[in-house]
Amino acid sequence: MKTIIKSIFLFAITATFLVSCAPSEKKGKSNKGAIAGNAAEKVYVAPGEHDSHYAFISGGFSGQLAVYGLPSGRLFRVIPVFSQDPEKGYGYSEETKPMLQTSHGFIPWGDSHHPDISQTKGSVDGRWVFINENNTPRIARISLKTFETEEIIEIPNSAGNHSSSFVTENSEYVVAGTRFAVPFPQRDMPIDEMKGNFSGALSFLKIDQETGHMNIEFQIKMPGFNYDLSHPGRGKSHGWFFFSTYNTEEANTLMEVNASQNDKDFIAAINWKKIEEYVANGGGKKMPTNYAHNTWNDDEHTAKTEWKKEVLVVEPKDVPGAIYFLPTAKSPHGCDVDPTGEYIIGNGKLAAAMTVHSFTKMLKAIEDKAFDGDAYGIPIIKFDAVNYGMLENPGLGPLHTEFDTRGNGYTTFFISSEVVKWNIKDLKVIDRHKVYYSVGHLMIPGGNSQTPDDKYLVAMNKITKDRYLPTGPEVCQSAQLFDISGEKLELLLDFPTIGEPHYAAGISAQIIKDLQPTKIFKLKDNKHPYGVKSEAETKVVRKGNEVHIYMTMIRSHFSPDNIEGVKVGDKVFFHVTNLEQDYDVPHGISMIGANTSELLIMPGRTTTFTWEPKQVGVWPFYCTDFCSALHQEMQGYVRVSPKGSNVPISFTLDGDIPGEEEE
Ligand code: K7E
Ligand code: CUA
After folding, report:
1. pLDDT in tens, 60-94
2. Could you write out the DSSP letters of every residue in 296-349?
3. Does 634 sit in the ligand 2 pocket, CB within 6 Å?
4. Which residues, other chains included, contact 494 with Cβ-Cβ below 8 Å and sequence gap of 6+?
5. 88 CA to middle of ligand 2, Å?
6. pTM assigned to the model
7. Whose CA is nearest to atom 1 of ligand 2?
8. Of ligand 1's atoms, which has the minimum distance to the CA of residue 334?
9. Rounded CA gap, 594 and 610, in Å?
10. Is any ligand 2 atom within 6 A of the Cβ of residue 585?
């Protein structure tokens, strides 16, 4: 067995090597490959024109979510989610710091993988994007009105939150599955006693349809396998969720060999409707835990953390008929469901074939009890009783599959660096196209829905080598855009990405435009406790060694702009309100020596940073965003006196106290 595995790995390594070397062999030739003559026209979006689609591409180890236009590949915005972002003050301002709170404390970084757009009746609806964090298990919800992170919920009893964050067809649930089996609940125990003693938490988070707020409705305590990826059933299979597993060996060391022993691992099929019913009737056990639930309040422009102390745990044995295992070719990675909900595809990354299961056959097999024993009490359905067929030798290292509306699947092959188009019913390969190089995920807008918008396909590649200008040892990761409207895949464009894109979600731009993204925050609705509505209300208040500055900004000055009476040892809070009520007029603010980032404040919003002056002097602050012809004049001074000095607090604008009538 071990030699076979070794040779698979050797093959994998050799294949990667061959692929990577190929381009440099044909010296002088470019890598244009099969680029058709009019590709440039197809991606050209003339100055001032808009793209037809949004692509939300995850940042992987950057922890963020980037917003691109398709077909141009232009980057519009990086939405900070799990990592601090000094460009926007996210995770630095007092208002946003609670978003990064967890049971492990304030965590300034995350690993974001799988964005998924909310759905209504099986189609993406453009309300929210959900995205998972792998490292310190969390799910975030981003508003597509503000393009800002509005909520982050921590997932207890989970580790390496990878089979996440996929949404059901009416956004009933977003799920989170643990990649790493761990003690559940966590406890101190020898690692090599893992087998049979670790568990795998699959969490179902209910989404409030009004607010989007997530709540962990229940957690299924599954056997201690690794749950790698997942997708919801849809249409006929709505009500089910499918999770790929690996390491059903339950190995705890040298996983590259020890977790590849079994010829087949499983796809876990979960009837969540059944479990929902069980829970509604009082099923499940409340277990003590501790996790952070962070929510953003758009009236107060502030996030808060709530500590949750309980989670409802469901044991599979208590809900017979709700969970089954479908044997699937060795160590599957992607677990994908086609738009009709009939075909469930497991991409066995180490196998020579891809497994296509049939939902109809699965129901029949359950009815007939066509089982091949069980794993920890969960019935294993006989392979032949559930399998629709195998796609034999489609390529090397299949990872992920997306679909069009014409019955075709598109699968990425990491090792052979290609995207393969195949017909699901016939299990026949129709076309294949090289990608440069080593592709991970791919995305068709609306890919995780019943109605893919199937003009474009984006392949997200792990390795770029010679595709771009060299930038030292670290070169960018990259996306490649294909036109899939014809029989053959047509490569249109390469564009570099932020961080490492693991997955993406795409949607027609019109859907989001129709929802009218926010342009300004209305000043009159601003309920920030330190917000002010006009310059007349600005002031500076001392409370012990805290100094609170209620400040405003408008083209092109701050009020107040001269402040005295601050002392070394004080903690100074700048609560700054942008009084502008025009679209696209943010102002920034930064203070010399402040141990934080600048703030970029949108019209109508109040944001706070703190400054603890260490040195006596007169210290300037200024606007960091070029906002008007007089941007350079948008500045002010704070006088800092020695500790114990008796200079009183005073604040002025043009020599007067703001708001006081001039005589
Ligand atoms: Cu395949 Cu995290 Cu979805 Cu990366 S994962 S490629
Ligand atoms: Cu305000 Cu520059």
Report:
1. 999 999 999 999 999 999 999 999 999 999 999 99
2. EETTTTEEEEEEEEEEEEE-GGGSTTSEEEEEEESSEEEEEE-TTS-EEEEEET
3. yes
4. 73, 436, 467, 468, 478, 479, 480, 481
5. 15
6. 0.94
7. 587
8. 1
9. 7
10. no
